[in-house]
Amino acid sequence: MKNSIAVYALHICICTAFILLPYVFSSTGTFLRFPDFSNGHDRTYFGIYFVLLIFFYFNYFYLIPQLYFHDKRFLYVIILVLMLLFFLWISNFVDRPLNEILSAMGSYNGPLQKVSHSTTAPKPAQDEHTILVYIIGVLSSLFFSINKRLQETEREKIAAELSLLKAQINPHFLFNTLNSIYSLSIRKDDRASDCIVQLAELMRYIMNNANDNMIDLSKEIEYISNYISLQKSRLEETAQINYMVNGNMIGKKITPLILISFIENAFKHGVNPEENSEIDILIEVTGQELKLLVYNRKVHSVQAESGMGMRNTIERLGHLYPDHKLEIANLDKSYSVKLTMEL
């Protein structure tokens, strides 16, 4: 709402400044004066600028979208030429009745057809000025329209990319989690049924919330906690997992599934039943700032390359949180991620 008011206020200021432009540094020596409608020059130029202003918005909101962007450019050019001729005609039309009024007031030194040079600009100069302002208005509206069209195209492209990235992340997560449950079922572990229930809750979250632009941070943290609980059930004592959440989550929003890939990567590449595996996860919220720290000790199964989920998440961060800070430390014996982002 505030943004809309600010935009309308900006348009009003620009339109006012445009109409008053001919009266800046006027011949009277003052920096700015308001139009005097008893003066032929002021009356004519006020009418020209006012009509040109209306045409600017008509061109921006109707002619360009309906004709120029729909490959009807020849018709668009014809309309522009006709409108220019109309403006040249109306610039004279506005001046004619005024001449008669000035004549009745005794402002003329001669016949009705002659006008004092102090009241009306020479006809050629007036037409040249009208043509110049008209061309500037047409080019400006074209520039703003094309720029807006490019921005909309870019937003649509980013939205399509994000949808694709989400579609790639979800099957990736499902594949890893099913492997975890499979390990439990192989060992005839009774917790396998509980893990299936947990997985159902996780997938319900993905189905209901993954396509939302923003979601409550508390729900995202609950989703991550369920995922870690599921991994603890699978790994039992073969891995030391330290998980901690600090800070106030109330009223905070976050893009869904933006953190899970960093955590998932630690479990995927930092766990080996034959070695001492260690994973540390810290989520800390301070004001509107969120910090995610993920650390895992390297084991023999660790791969140097980041997985698909990691690459996709890094791309999403670039689109949605361009001011984020991501530090990845790939050392000889450990791998850690530090992410800082504004919610």
From TrEMBL:
Q: Which UniProt keywords apply?
A: Membrane, Transmembrane, Transmembrane helix
- Record field: transmembrane: 7-25, 45-62, 74-94, 131-147
Q: Name one GO molecular function term.
A: phosphorelay sensor kinase activity
A single cellular component GO annotation: membrane
All residue ranges annotated as the Signal transduction histidine kinase internal region domain in the record: 160-237
Q: Which InterPro entries has this protein been placed in?
A: Bact_2-comp_sensor_kinase, Sig_transdc_His_kin_internal
* Superkingdom as given in the UniProt entry: Bacteria
The answer to keyword Membrane applying to this record is: yes
Entry protein name: Signal transduction histidine kinase internal region domain-containing protein
